[in-house]
Amino acid sequence: MTVVIIGAGMAGLSAARALQAAGREVELFDKGRGPGGRMSTRRAETDLGQVAFDHGAQYFTARDPEFAALVSEMVQAGAVAEWQADLVEIDAQGDVRPMRDERRFVGVPGMNGIIRAMAAPLSVQWAKRLVNTSREEGGWRLVFEDGEVRGGFDQLLFAVPAEQAVDLFQTLHPPFASDAAQAVSDPCWALMLAFEERVDTAWDGGRFEVGAISWAARNSSKPGRSPIETWTLHASPEWSKQHLEADPQEVVSPLLAAFGEHARFAPPIHAAAHRWRYAQITRSAQSDSAWNADLQLGMCGDWRIGARVEAAWLSGRDLALRTLCD
Ligand SMILES: Cc1cc2nc3c(=O)[nH]c(=O)nc-3n(C[C@H](O)[C@H](O)[C@H](O)COP(=O)(O)OP(=O)(O)OC[C@H]3O[C@@H](n4cnc5c(N)ncnc54)[C@H](O)[C@@H]3O)c2cc1C
């Protein structure tokens, strides 16, 4: 049985690992230039040297025992470490309280470290954007943007964000397009900052109930990072929606000014913005994964459960188990 998975983020890799362990032959294709998806790490050169930012997912928790086992395995492999930092929540009145006491993990040396490690024993091809697919006598046939055509796969699984699933399924299988269209996500502008001096705050990461930014974290406080002072800020969903089509350069000063309400710092030596058009799910689909046994076609992703790394892993595993039961 040959399986092809489109999307090698946490969901696609979770499905692939379960299927490979069950003896299936699995191939993955991802349009990204390297491992990460929404757990990407962005590098930049500064006058002080190279820095890297987790500009998507900031950390993850492991509540499911099987996911916790994977995280332990990745800790052993040096691809994940626990982030022990002073993390706070700041409410509309400005009152500060510590974030819920929970173990928080990050990829090492950047967030994409876990994706890289999970992908290593699998057959994954990066920079391969799927543009078309059809079901033929010999199995599923795939057409990639670079012109390559591959065929003969028994099962086709999609592990892409909901909005991209809607586009891909529009003609391929409209019921899946309608299913994916139920999921709704918010955009997020991320600001990546490097400083010569330490930013003056009483905490390493803060979640804010009001204002232009909803999250700010000392990226350099995470394990295995460069000691150069780096921060990642996330604009709130409302602010991100209002500035959705802004030029990345235009969002730098207002977000920096908003950060100035919470911290004291000298002008950054590096500032760059990235827009996540589909960042975090606010309304998820009805089931953990979708599977059509007649077509041997499925889809998974965080958007089936919730905006969390662990949800992506759970959805991928759910889909793999469903395909194995058929
Ligand atoms: C700004 C931000 C902050 C976040 N913060 C947190 C956090 O602190 N904690 C937490 O747990 N979660 C957080 N999340 C959510 C977390 O990142 C996601 O839940 C998780 O990474 C989703 O994994 P996934 O595999 O479902 O999707 P993705 O990681 O998006 O993977 C989908 C993959 O599909 C590929 N793809 C798409 N279309 C195609 C195509 N046509 N052909 C080939 N490949 C394709 C993409 O390149 C991508 O690699 C955050 C997300 C963002 C954006």
Commentary on this structure:
26% of the residues lie in helices and 33% in strands. The chain is globular. The N and C termini lie close together (12 Å). The mean pLDDT is 96. It contains eight helices and 20 strands. It folds into two domains: 1-34 and 112-183 and 284-326, FAD/NAD(P)-binding domain, CATH 3.50.50; 41-111 and 184-283, Polyamine Oxidase, Chain A, domain 2 (Alpha-Beta Complex). The protein is of the alpha/beta class and 326 residues long. A hairpin with a 4-residue loop joins strand 15 (205-208) and strand 16. The strands form five sheets. A seven-stranded mixed β-sheet has the order 7-6-15-16-17-14-18. The chain binds flavin-adenine dinucleotide. Flavin-adenine dinucleotide binds at residues 6-12, 29-32, 37-39, 56-60, 129-130, 159-161, 164, 188, 190, 234, 276, 279-280, 301-302, 307-309, 311-312.
**Distinct small-molecule ligands in the complex:** flavin-adenine dinucleotide
Gyration radius from CA atoms, angstroms:
20 Å
H-E order: EHEEEHEEEEHEEEEEHHEEEEHHEEEH
What would the principal axes of the Cα set say about the shape?
Answer: globular
Mean pLDDT: 96
Distance between the termini: 12 Å
Task: Summarize the biggest pleated sheet.
Answer: 7 strands, mixed
Q: Give the amount of beta strand, in percent.
A: 25-35%
Assign the CATH class of the largest domain. Answer: Alpha Beta
CATH architecture of the largest domain: Alpha-Beta Complex
Order of neighbouring strands in the sheet with most strands: 7-6-15-16-17-14-18
Secondary structure: helix percent: 25-40%
Domain unit count: 2
* Overall strand count: 20
Number of helices: 8
CATH topology descriptor of the largest domain: Polyamine Oxidase, Chain A, domain 2
* Strand-pairing-aware structural class: alpha/beta
Low-confidence stretches: none
